[in-house]
Structures are given as C-alpha cells and as structure tokens.
Input
Amino acid sequence: MLDAFAKSNFDVFAGSEVFLLDNLRNGGKGCITATGNVNPGPIDTVYRNWRGADADKLQAGITATRNIVQKVPMIPALKAIIAHFGNDPQWKTIRPPLTELTAAHEAQVITDLKAAGFSMPGL
Output
C-alpha cells in the first residue's frame, strides 16, 4: 500500500524512527521524529544502510532507544537527556504547560540509556 503512494509522487515519512526501516523497505522516504534531536547518528545510519545486511540490527538499536525515551513525556525527556549528556542543567528548563521530569523518571531514563550504550558524541 505504501509503495503505491510512493510511486504516485507522494513521499511518506514515518512519524517515529521505530517504523523507519519498514517505511524505507516499502517505498517510504524516511522519518520525522522527536528523538532525532538526541539520536541523529544512529537514525541516519539506518537511513543510509537500510539495504545492508545489518539493517535489522541497526533498526533494533534505534527502536530500543526510542522505547526508553517514550516511557515518559517526550519533550521533557529530550531536554533532560541533553542536559545530562551535555552537562548543562539549564537544558531541563521546560515552558508551561509542560513540566520537567520527576527526579525518578529522569534517573530511570538516563540509567536505561547508559545501560543500552547510548551516547551523544560532540556534546
């Protein structure tokens, strides 16, 4: 079905990297995802290597990261991740009506990401 859309000059972008590989394999063009703000390298690696032998393994990695982040409110989680890995607590600042993650939620996200081998090179 997706392939029919793609063939009619209708570009399809998944709304999460969880669907990136399936989207590409079915004629889609990529994804538009919030976690691309903290995990761009691995997402790009899937995009560039979706036809490769390791594509499913690469996809599993970005899906695992997404699953960790989406356990809590997404925007506060992304800001907490940048604050932690960038060593800049001001990044946790959230504008109303959103609120920062609780200390417990933040600790769990960071612990789970570290356990999964997550990093943010360049920060």
